[in-house]
Write a structure and sequence with these properties.
4 helices, single chain, about 90 residues, alpha+beta, Rubrerythrin, domain 2
């Protein structure tokens, strides 16, 4: 059984929980959260494989997720405790 993630809103379609294979859904099926088309889904294992890279920090992952959510601006005062986040924003 597969788990698939919507790349728009991060909704997880779990074939085991839904009791229906994703491939058996109609072509015009949309995400129940954001109405993204069926083509906006990626297998969770593929998603995790793409995201797992050596040399990535928690800050990198956090900023990547914020970007996926559509956050464009981050406000704050840079300092010793937040330099990892500042660097991750700079890389993005």
């Amino acid at each position: 059984m597969l788990k698939l993630r919507c790349i728009v809103c991060n909704y997880i379609y779990d074939e085991k929980k839904e009791r229906k294979k994703f491939s058996d859904l109609s072509g015009n099926w949309t995400c129940p959260v954001c109405n993204a088309p069926k083509t906006a889904f990626i297998s969770l294992t593929e998603h995790l494989r793409r995201k797992t890279k050596e040399g990535r920090s928690v800050s990198d992952t956090l900023i990547d997720q914020m970007a996926e959510w559509g956050i464009k601006y981050v406000f704050g005062i840079p300092g010793t405790s937040s330099l990892g986040l500042v660097d991750a924003v700079r890389k993005k």
